Amino acid sequence: MASGINADSFSNEAERTRARDVVFEALRRIQSPWDIAWDQNWVNPAINAAVKTLIDAGVFKKWADEAGGSPITCSKLAELTGADELLIRRMMRAISGQFLVQEVAQDTYARTPWARALAEDPSFSGMYGGFYHELNSQMFRTLPFYLRETGFQNPTNVNDCNFQFWQGDKNANMFQYVGTNSRLTSDFNDAMECHSKYNLTPWVDIYPTDTVIESAAKTDGAQPRPLVVDIGGGKGHDLKKFLVRHPDTSPGSLVLQDLPDILRGVEVCPAIKVQPHDFFTPQPAESEGARVYLMHNVLHDWPDETARKILQTLAPAMKKGYSRLLIHESLVSSVKPLSRVTVSDITMMACLAAAERSEEQWRELVTSAGLTIVRIWRPVQSVESIIEVEVA
Ligand SMILES: C[S@@+](CC[C@H](N)C(=O)[O-])C[C@H]1O[C@@H](n2cnc3c(N)ncnc32)[C@H](O)[C@@H]1O
């Protein structure tokens, strides 16, 4: 019935997401309770393991680069990768059963857009393994045991939560731990870049960035100040989006801040100045009075008390009537919140004793830090909004 439909059949992302939700709800009605439990506890772990193995063996990459991406047999894939043919066949059969590749003849498979993306985008294939397998999945495994041990209390202490329960030691929170391992740091940065690429509406499509440039030219005049400071900006992907939209931005007027360990090895273009900075300390003098401070998916990593400290530490650097803080985050709706947001909420709980917030909770947090909300920019059916904030 729906065989002619694919992800390109919709005129916009909102329509595609609505259609996906309708189909998913229908699937749930068709599934028996056993089907659901089977999918969640057998299928997802088994298929993730198969996909990761195929990625590591080079199947998707070599299928594209050395066989042109056309339909292929398992013996050819084994020849290309040097892996055992029987192993490849078992893995390919398993992922074909999930419609991740298409069986077009006996033992012969065609690529889907998902299989193509695994070949073309290293940050997408990085979703399997790395940060998600080594850290996130471990967090989900221990979470129920941790919560049972705490008498089922809502966790709020980033330095004593499920993360430390998993580690068996209270010396580091998740970010500190990630920073001590260069491979995990790079995987983490890739994972954030991947979210930014596929999961979210770019901030420059939500907030009118033309106004940033216009008002900065008028107000800043003699003493140039940074245009945009991306606080906790990871690899700088959000600043790159700004540059694509405004390619004439003067060099150095975009500032990328993050912890030194996270910024190590990050490559950016000359327009972006990399500035190691811990947001629990005051802004460096040269980054005071910026037109925009951007915090994208930063505050959802922290419980209220800590998030308030981050905002209160930033506030003195903001020039009243001029600087704006853009908090690019999800808002949990009170009715039927988006599943991507509620899943992210449990992830924040598992890793950092943090949470996604409702509009009311964001208002309380911002106000309690001596700041005020100017406006909330909400794209239709997008996962995230932008909360525009100034000094009260
Ligand atoms: C969820 S990631 C978001 C990254 C990026 N803004 C994005 O949206 O893709 C949170 C970022 O906050 C950074 N971070 C954590 N603690 C920090 C601190 N004390 N000072 C500065 N950055 C920090 C992390 O290293 C990480 O890059």
Looking at this protein, list some descriptive labels:
392 residues; alpha/beta; Arc Repressor Mutant, subunit A; Rossmann fold; 2 domains; three-stranded antiparallel sheet; 10 strands; 49% helix; globular; binds S-adenosylmethionine
What does this structure look like?
With 392 residues, the chain is α/β, with parallel strands linked by helices. The chain folds into two domains: 31-120, Winged helix-like DNA-binding domain superfamily/Winged helix DNA-binding domain (Arc Repressor Mutant, subunit A, Orthogonal Bundle), CATH 1.10.10; 196-391, Vaccinia Virus protein VP39 (Rossmann fold, 3-Layer(aba) Sandwich). The chain has helices at residues 13-30, 33-56, 59-65, 74-81, 85-96, 113-120, 122-125, 130-149, 162-167, 174-179, 182-198, 203-206, 209-220, 237-245, 260-263, 304-314, 339-352, 359-368; strands spanning 72-73, 102-105, 108-110, 228-231, 254-258, 272-276, 292-296, 324-330, 371-377, 384-391. A seven-stranded mixed beta sheet has the order 6-5-4-7-8-10-9, sandwiched between helices. The chain has a three-stranded antiparallel beta sheet with strand order 1-3-2. A hairpin with a 2-residue loop joins strand 2 and strand 3 (108-110). Helix 3 (59-65) crosses helix 6, helix 4 packs across helix 5 and helix 8 packs across helix 11. The radius of gyration is 23 Å and the shape is globular. The relative contact order is 0.09. Bound molecules: S-adenosylmethionine. The site of S-adenosylmethionine has 16 residues, from helix 11.
